[in-house]
Amino acid sequence: MRIFLFGQPVDVNFIGLRLEADVSANGCSNGKLGGGVTVDEFRAKFLPHIVDGLNQVVAANPGAANILLQTLDSDRNGTISVPELEGNPALMLAMSPDLDLLDSSSAFNPGQDGKKDSYSIGLGFTCVPASFTAPGD
């Protein structure tokens, strides 16, 4: 699924998805998409975009820059990196995996091995009616 993080498209492989919405002829409301993303997927796809977003804030907002850099820029070079986020104990505790969705063979099998291997993800949405013309019509 393609989502946007800090304005950039990111293709993410979600697992255990659940979709809910109030659907009518006029579209939908109260849309909720929930599921999980593995630790590897989170580190490979989310963290780099989070770092980019934080560095955009640092560049655009000097007041926020001081706080962010003091908290996250461990090598004091003026930018935040993925290793700095991963090495920040308080941040990683707050961003610890919270779901057990995979078994010991990495197959989708929730709650089987007791190991929290995925992050919960929840997205809200609305939709509007649309129609498409098939090619060649």
Characteristics:
137 residues; alpha+beta; 3-stranded antiparallel beta sheet; two-stranded antiparallel sheet; 5 strands; 33% helix; globular
Could you write a compact summary of the structure shown?
33% of the residues lie in helices and 29% in strands. It is α+β, with helices and mostly antiparallel strands and 137 residues long.
Helix and strand topology:
Layout: E1 2-5, E2 8-11, E3 15-24, E4 27-38, H1 39-60, H2 62-72, H3 82-87, H4 89-94, E5 118-127
Helix pairs in contact: 1-2
What do you see in this structure?
It is globular and about 60 Å long. The strands form two sheets. A three-stranded antiparallel β-sheet has the order 3-4-5. A two-stranded antiparallel sheet has the order 1-2. It has four helices and five strands; from the N terminus they run ββββααααβ. It has 137 residues and is of the alpha+beta class. The protein has one domain (2-109, 119-127). The mean pLDDT is 90. Helices cover 33% and strands 29% of the residues.
Name the structural class.
Answer: alpha+beta
Widest beta sheet: strand line-up: 3-4-5
Number of domains: 1
Integer average pLDDT: 90
Give the CA-based shape: globular
Q: Uncertain spans, ≥5 residues at pLDDT below 50?
A: none
Total helical segments:
4
Number of strands: 5
